[in-house]
Amino acid sequence: MRKVIVLNRISLDGFFAGPKGEIDWFVRDPAVDKAVHGPVAANTLLLGRLTYQMFESFWPNVAKDPKAPAEHLATAKELDELKKVVFSTTLNEVSWQNSRLVKGDVTGEVRRLKQGDAGDMLIFGSGTIVQQLADHD
């Protein structure tokens, strides 16, 4: 059975975004970066609308920028190659390569995805998805 792995940076007081959704408080940490790129056998990224839109507006552009730092290019390539399942009730389409839009039941879709054997699934950000999954074990 596939695992769902959540990789989020959370403040000591339990927040991962500021009052307006900002994430400018993140402190880059090489140990965290190493863990994210370590021995995780994931091939699918689960995203909510906000995280999808933030990632999709940034990472594909990095992938096309030959002047981008090597670690950013590596991350952009990894994210481009991952299958992306985007949960949204308001989006009508997703355009980032390897992306698929799901408008229905988050927990039901993740339960179905977990039954496969295609590698684990990652969640970055996407607090509402994390909360829904936690509420349903």
List the helices and strands and how they pair.
Layout: E1 4-6, H1 30-36, E2 42-48, H2 49-63, H3 70-81, E3 83-87, E4 99-102, H4 106-114, E5 120-123, H5 127-135
Parallel strand pairs: 1-5, 2-3, 2-5, 3-4
How would you explain this protein's 3D organization?
By secondary structure, this protein is an alpha/beta fold. The chain has a single domain (4-135), classed as Dihydrofolate Reductase, subunit A (3-Layer(aba) Sandwich). It contains five helices and five strands, in the order βαβααββαβα. It has helices at residues 30-36, 49-63, 70-81, 106-114, 127-135; strands at 4-6, 42-48, 83-87, 99-102, 120-123. Strands 1-5-2-3-4 form a five-stranded parallel beta sheet, sandwiched between helices. Helix 2 crosses helix 3. It is globular and about 40 Å long. The mean pLDDT is 85.
Label the structural class.
Answer: alpha/beta
Order of helices and strands: EHEHHEEHEH
Number of strands: 5
Q: Extract low-pLDDT stretches.
A: none
Q: How much helix, percentage-wise, in residues?
A: 25-40%
User: Main sheet: which strands, in order across?
Assistant: 1-5-2-3-4
- Measured on Cα atoms, how large is the radius of gyration? 15 Å
The level 1 CATH classification is: Alpha Beta
Q: Which homologous superfamily in CATH is the superfamily?
A: Dihydrofolate Reductase, subunit A
Give the overall silhouette: globular
Strand content of the residues, in percent?
15-25%
